[in-house]
Amino acid sequence: EVPVSRKTNLHTTVVLLKLLGIMEFLAINKNIKIEIMNVNAWKKKAGIVSKTRAEQKKESIQLALSRWKPYREILTNNDDVADSLNMGYAFLKFHNYL
To answer: Is the whole-model pTM more than 0.70?
Structure first.
């Protein structure tokens, strides 16, 4: 989901929407089925159970560190990277690749 509100950094929203568009374009050109997974669904599938966003950030980083050890250096304090890796993990788990 791309956050859009008055509190959201407009530049970040524009970058995320462009990225989403590019990813959809590439997927369609390669005949890859596009699947949108709700935030709560991927977090549950990835094992993130904390209630507050601050706790979820910490939990996401810890889970990603345990699953993706080669990325330790960039994961240590980056919850966005951790979330991205955990989204991928949730997708693979959802489709029984793990």
So the answer is: yes
